[in-house]
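From: lab user (bench 3)
To: helpdesk
Subject: output format question, protein + pyridoxal-5'-phosphate

Hello, I'm new to running complex predictions and I'm not sure whether the block I got back is the full result or only part of it. Here's what I submitted:
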Amino acid sequence: MAKKLQIYLDYSATTAPRPEVIVAMQQALSEQWGNPSSLHEWGQRALMVVEKARLQVAGLINAPEAESIIFTSGGTEANNLAIMGVAHLYTTPQHLIISSVEHSAVAEPARLLEKWGWEVTRLPVDSWGRVRENDLESAIRPNTVLVSVIYGQSEVGTLQPIATLGEIARSKGVLFHTDAVQVVGRLPLDVQQLPVDLLSISSHKIYGPQGAGALYVRPGVELVPLLSGGGQEWGRRSGTQAVPAIAGFGVAAELALLEMEVETLRLIKLRDRLIANLADTPNLKPTGDRIWRLPHHVSFCVTGNGEKVTGKTLVRQLNLAGIAISSGSACSSGKTTPSPVLLAMGYNSRDAKGAIRLTLGRDTTEADVDWTAMVIKQILARLMPALALSK
Ligand SMILES: Cc1ncc(COP(=O)(O)O)c(C=O)c1O
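Helpdesk reply: Thanks, we reran it on our side. This is the complete output you should expect:
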């Protein structure tokens, strides 16, 4: 098997902008650099770029109208706009429901609201990372104003039953937001079918540039803007739009939609091949749901090694071998902290430090996943020889 010098398996962290995206961005920078709010020719040329991109992003999720797409600086801002934009509608603290496996861009705004006197319910998950519908049903109170549940979990790959959860919230008259950053462009998504009011998207997860994203806002849903000023984006997000980034985002969205059917099936095959290749590895345990799973996502945790080998150890060792993956745990002051997501799924703190994530994308081949599985097995056998022999 020929070895590639570099194998990138961190597509959930970010993706390389595709060539068509770079062309669109270069064109925007050199020819469409006007301010989209200006009435003259330069401004109108830039405005056309922004509005074309809005249609392209709207098309990717089948939004009913272009105005329901609010451009932001990325997924983090979209999540903050959804949570805080709803919260600011109220002058007194209310009740918010999130899941216990949210990305920090939802978990942190929720923590802030708690400091301001809001009540926050964090829905528990099962050992696969799935929220149970009954738990949402019983958590909703008369003063619940928003439910936010991540669609595709970025660390463990689990997909949530968003259609059912959204339906429950809707039946009780409560707004429903989903962080769909890892799902958009990877699985078909139709906001006219899905009972969601707010949905977050990020450009750099779908081969667009960093620094662009969007919040889908169902027509009729009110939000208080986080940024006030010039009134761009129908007053919902002031600030001159980042035209080149938005141009690239639009092209990425259009191509993602065009290629999704074929690419998603290809990724699922590669994903399952990698999981199968690693399945019999001693002390490597798959995490997340096996079936309700992002098509490009493989995650494991190294278990039973007394913290000698953490997820970060593996990330560093694989990096030396020319393979880029990520660990599920965050680093603070040099210490490895256990992943809150795995803790919520019932893992002990030792195993939760062993999380690794391998995410596949456009350039991933069968040879890449076979080689990577072999290298991981070699590294683990070297780092944990006694464990390997005992199997
Ligand atoms: C699920 C999820 N939500 C939100 C974000 C944040 O998106 P951005 O990097 O565009 O701010 C990420 C990025 O890792 C993510 O995976």
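A quick orientation on your result: The chain has twelve helices and 15 strands. Let us know if anything else is unclear.
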